[in-house]
C-alpha cells in the first residue's frame, strides 16, 4: 500500500506540469491585455508598457512559463496582478470554504444516491423503482445554476426559510450543498441500482437467502459491500465534478470560495490567480482519486493496487 501511494505521488509531477501548461496557454489566448486592464481606461501607452515590464509580460511566452513552473515547485504561485498579494495566501483563505461546500455536497450525493439506488434495486421494475429512476433522470438533466436559482426562489424568496446567499452560518450551507449534491446523487443512484442488480443475481446471494438470513442482512452485508466498487469510482469522479460546479454555485450564492475567486480572476485577466486556483483544484482532485484507490482495497482485500 505504501509503495502504491509513493508511486501515485510521483505521478503527480507530470500532472502539475500538464495543468500549468494547459492553463497558461489558454490564458494567453484570452482576449485582453492585463497591463491595460490594470493601468485603467485612458492610460497612455507608456504607462501600459511600464506595467507590462513590471509584470514580466514583455518577456517571451516560453520564458514566462518556465519561470512560473520553477516558482511553483518552490511553493511560490506568484502575486496577484490585481491586489499584489501572494496567490497562495488568497487560495489558502478561500480553499477551506470550497472544500466545506464540496464535503457537504458529496455527503448529500452519497446518502441520497445510495438510498435511492438500494430502494430501486430491492424491487426492480416496480412503481417505486420507476419513480426513483425518473426523479434521478430529472436530477441529472437539471443544470446546477438553474437548480440553484430555483431553490433560492422557492426557499429563500417565497417561503423565506433559508438565507438567499452568503456563507455566514449552517443555514447558508443547505441550498448550495443541495444544488451541487442532487445531480451527483442521481448518477450515484443509477450506478448503485445497476451494480446491486448484478450482485443480487449471484449464486452466493441466493445461498445466503437459502440459509435463512434476514433480507436486510443479505442486502447490506453481502450485496451492498460487493456492489460498492463501481459506486466508489463514480463518487470519486463526482467529487471532481463538484469542484468544477463550485465555480457556478459560488457565483450564484455569492460564496467567497475558490471557484468564485477563479471567476473573478478570469474577468480581470489575473493570470497568476487563475493558474494558482486551477492548479490547486487539480491537485485536490488527484488526491481524491488516490483516496478512492485506497478505498478499493479497504472494501475488497483481493484488489491488487500494484
TrEMBL record:
Occurrences of domain ABC transmembrane type-1 (ranges): 95-296
Entry-linked Pfam families: BPD_transp_1, BPD_transp_1_N
Protein name per its UniProtKB record: Nickel import system permease protein NikB
Predominant subcellular localization, coarse grouping: membrane
CDD domains: TM_PBP2
UniProt record similarity statement: Belongs to the binding-protein-dependent transport system permease family. OppBC subfamily.
Record-annotated membrane-spanning stretches: 12-30, 101-122, 134-157, 169-189, 227-253, 273-296
Source species of the chain: Sporosarcina gallistercoris
NCBIfam families: Opp2B (NF045470)
Keyword annotations: Cell membrane, Ion transport, Membrane, Nickel, Nickel transport, Transmembrane, Transmembrane helix, Transport
Complexes and interactors: The complex is composed of two ATP-binding proteins (NikD and NikE), two transmembrane proteins (NikB and NikC) and a solute-binding protein (NikA).
UniProt membrane topology term: Multi-pass membrane protein
Subcellular location: Cell membrane
